[in-house]
Amino acid sequence: MKFEVTILGSASATPVYNRNPTAQLLNCNERQYLIDCGEGTQQQLIKFGFKASKIDYIFISHLHGDHFFGLVGLLSSLHLNGRTKPLHLFAPPALKEIIELQFLHSDTRLRYEIDFYPIDATKPEVIFKNNDVTVETIILNHRIPCTGFKFTEKKRLRKLVIEKLEEDAVPVEYYPMLKRSVDVDLPDGRSIKYLDYTTDSATPKVYCYCSDTMYDERYFSQIGGADTLYHEATFLHEMLDRANETHHTTAKQAAEIATKVKAKKLLIGHFSSRYKTLEALLEEAKDGFDATELATEGKTFEI
Ligand SMILES: [Zn+2]
Ligand SMILES: [Zn+2]
């Protein structure tokens, strides 16, 4: 099953040096989930060959402009391009009012429905579940209410050992039960144990998205063991005072967090516009956590 994330925007605050404000596209089993929608997200989708019409779920972390200023434009384009299927939007409660006001004054009546889910930023909760993935909020520590998102793949059914099943002539109609860990009694009197004919499926993978936040151990338990942890790293550690003041994280701190929570891989992003190049940020993070990569725009990472 495909489980990967493509970076559409990696800048904080303002678009600079060919970097766009934050947005990511998660592909889980060929369904697209948009995480944040900074200005320019539509253009980035086009640039990297994605169809906005395929997105059915959008998650917005908080109401700073660099995380949602691209949203109304995207919603409007979907309408103009004839969308009729509903769109599921998970976001801070006030975003509903912002969207409605914009469309009210432009006399826009969307052809499709927005199924709006207001996020409670005071406690973590499961906000979405389907056959592929579960999405849970992560309570971050930012200047305004802000949540990260934890995407956990759904555990797949057990895998059949076809060779053995055929060798012992187990009828095909019993395969689905064995996959669901059920032992079966055949009409010929044989008892078939699922453990003898199936193997366990892969351990579900976890992707954690943490932007924006300052270092705060309260959310560490939630992101423990993530296969891929995206963590903001707005500044170099020499700017720690500024990071604390603005409720952001330094590259060194992001690495420390990845180490503490035993993440397998760290992606850093949300880079300040003060950095023209990103090597120093990468170096600083790699110093503390070697398996770090820059969340560079257009790059796709397998979770
Ligand atoms: Zn931001
Ligand atoms: Zn912010």
Automatic annotation (TrEMBL):
Gene3D superfamilies (alphabetical): Ribonuclease Z/Hydroxyacylglutathione hydrolase-like (3.60.15.10)
Binding site for Zn(2+) 1: 62, 64, 142, 212
Keywords: Endonuclease, Hydrolase, Metal-binding, Nuclease, tRNA processing, Zinc
EC class: hydrolase
Keyword Hydrolase listed: yes
Record: residues binding Zn(2+) 2: 66-67, 212, 270
Active site: 66
Classification via InterPro entries: RibonucZ/Hydroxyglut_hydro, RNase_Z/BN
Reaction(s) catalysed by this chain's protein: Endonucleolytic cleavage of RNA, removing extra 3' nucleotides from tRNA precursor, generating 3' termini of tRNAs. A 3'-hydroxy group is left at the tRNA terminus and a 5'-phosphoryl group is left at the trailer molecule
Cofactor(s) the record lists: Zn(2+)
Protein origin, superkingdom: Bacteria
Alphabetical list of Pfam families matching this protein: Anti-Pycsar_Apyc1
Enzyme Commission numbers on file: 3.1.26.11
Binding note for cofactor: Binds 2 Zn(2+) ions.
Single GO term (MF): zinc ion binding
Transmembrane segments: none
Family, per entry: Belongs to the RNase Z family.
The protein's role, per its UniProt record: Zinc phosphodiesterase, which displays some tRNA 3'-processing endonuclease activity. Probably involved in tRNA maturation, by removing a 3'-trailer from precursor tRNA.
Subunit annotation: Homodimer.
UniProt cross-references to HAMAP family, sorted A to Z: RNase_Z_BN
Protein name as annotated: Ribonuclease Z
Organism: Pedobacter xixiisoli
Name of the gene: rnz
